[in-house]
Design goal:
There is one protein chain. By secondary structure, the protein is an alpha+beta fold. The longest helix has 12 residues. It is built from 9 helices and 15 strands. Strands 5, 6, 7, 8, 9, 12, 13, 14 and 15 form a 9-stranded antiparallel sheet that branches. The protein has a 4-stranded parallel sheet with strand order 2-1-3-4, with helices on both faces. The chain is elongated.
């Protein structure tokens, strides 16, 4: 039986590399029984609008783009009562979600094949401030502005290296935020260098959590809080702990929670899935337990 697939394409993602093999990918999907309709984004939030307005008519909604494009698609589908399954053809720079799901990166044909051969899995979605959503992470603090602050021409020319260079340039700007964190099992009040709520084994393409630490459809999100390391040596020890996946630093707190409220003494900038999320003095985050099925 023929199935309907909606393919939302961000033509700017991956430096337009998808164009090289898009015909082969569509042929593979067609041979696998999918009648595919293409939707091209031209401006921010187009992917959300397409998914919300037309997604219910399809068996699968997939996208070609980076984590930001996928985030927009999921936000659109969250507005639907009947949510189609999601497929993903990653063509971004950090590709955190693709890393978590072990999907082929910047490989249009390989990812199209995975839509056919993959298995639908329950997938949690994050809620931000009661009105917005995130696919895998909401964060504030050190380096979280690197993704959207990196100039687009650098992203196109340097790829992931652009993020690394921008992050190095941010070292002199590190600051801490006095934060009250209320979560399922308690309250924490600390001066934090970084905080996040996530559903991913990969953050920024650099930090990796073990698969045992993350359940993508378990109804729980990972709450990560980094205390002020006070000294350069303390920061070095902290970074070494994270990159080695030991997570033994006394400055690092990792918890599992369904919801968390962050309250600050002043407005603090947030990111959602690598994109600007506005400044907030107080924001509530939550985990929507498996509202969608993700094919991977």
């Amino acid at each position: 039986m023929e199935k309907k697939l909606m393919l939302i394409i961000n033509p700017a993602a991956g430096r337009g590399a998808y164009k090289l093999n898009i015909g082969d990918a569509l042929q593979i999907l067609d041979a696998g029984g999918y009648r595919t309709t293409l939707y091209y984004t031209a401006a921010p939030t187009d992917a959300t609008r397409f998914a919300a307005q037309y997604g219910a008519a399809y068996d699968v909604v997939a996208c070609i783009g980076g984590d930001g494009t996928l985030s927009e698609v999921i936000a659109g589908l969250m507005r639907l009562e009947r949510k189609p399954r999601i497929g993903y053809i990653p063509m971004g720079t950090a590709n955190d979600v693709a890393t978590t799901l072990n999907l082929p990166k910047n490989d249009t044909v390989g990812a199209a094949r995975r839509i056919l051969s993959g298995t639908p899995h329950p997938y949690d979605v994050g809620g931000f401030g009661g009105k917005e959503y995130f696919a895998y992470i909401a964060a504030f603090g050190a380096f979280t502005d690197v993704s959207y602050a990196t100039p687009q021409d650098q992203k196109k020319a340097l790829g992931h290296l652009a993020y690394v260079l921008q992050g190095m340039a941010s070292l002199s700007k590190l600051e801490t935020y006095h934060t009250l964190v209320e979560y399922d099992d308690g309250v924490i009040e600390e001066d934090l260098l970084y905080g996040s709520m996530s559903n991913s084994t990969s953050v920024g393409g650099l930090v990796r959590f073990t698969e045992e630490m993350v359940g993508l459809g378990d109804g729980m999100s990972e709450l990560v809080l980094v205390k002020d390391p006070k000294t350069v040596d303390g920061l070095g020890d902290l970074v070494g702990s994270v990159l080695s996946q030991s997570y033994e630093s006394e400055k690092l707190i990792i918890l599992h929670t369904k919801k968390a409220r962050f309250t600050f003494t002043r407005p603090v900038a947030w990111t959602r899935d690598g994109e600007a999320g506005g400044e907030h003095r107080s924001v509530e985050l939550c985990n929507y337990h498996a509202p969608i099925e993700f094919i991977f």
